[in-house]
Structure to design on (144 residues):
């Protein structure tokens, strides 16, 4: 009898397919903050055919915190990579401009890339920029 646990490739292929389902609400294409501010109903299309809407007030806050130059480089929504392979559920932000915005929202003076966030940080982010963030589950974050 062949052990399925011994065949890591089969498990990884299966998990990749499952992650597509879990991540179906992620955007097809992200948009620049400056572009979203010009839209009457700021939104992005999602992989499952839906729409992810942004609150204008949150977009304006992001613009105020970043300024014109960085606002023209910020793609939204910000993707928080969910990592469950660490001691505590952790969220990573790998993009420099996204990390800068999140650090400003959280009042962090110093941070490094990738920016590691913990559940306590999410409470504050959800209060201030809930529609600007989305969560992505990756194979990296899973332990086999």
């Amino acid at each position: 009898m062949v052990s399925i646990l011994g065949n890591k490739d089969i498990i990884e292929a299966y998990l990749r397919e499952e992650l597509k389902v879990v991540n179906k609400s992620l955007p097809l294409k992200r948009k620049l903050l400056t572009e979203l501010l010009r839209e009457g109903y700021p939104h992005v299309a999602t992989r499952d055919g839906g729409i992810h809407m942004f609150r204008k007030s949150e977009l304006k806050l992001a613009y105020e915190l970043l300024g014109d130059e960085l606002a023209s480089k910020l793609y939204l929504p910000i993707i928080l990579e969910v990592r469950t392979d660490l001691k505590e559920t952790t969220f990573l932000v790998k993009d420099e401009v996204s990390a800068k915005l999140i650090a400003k929202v959280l009042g962090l003076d110093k941070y490094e890339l990738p920016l590691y966030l913990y559940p306590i940080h999410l409470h504050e982010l959800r209060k201030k920029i809930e529609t600007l963030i989305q969560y992505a589950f990756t194979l990296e974050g899973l332990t086999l």
User: Anything to note?
Assistant: The helical segments are 8-22, 33-38, 56-71, 96-106, 119-129. The chain has one domain: 8-137. The longest helix spans residues 56-71.
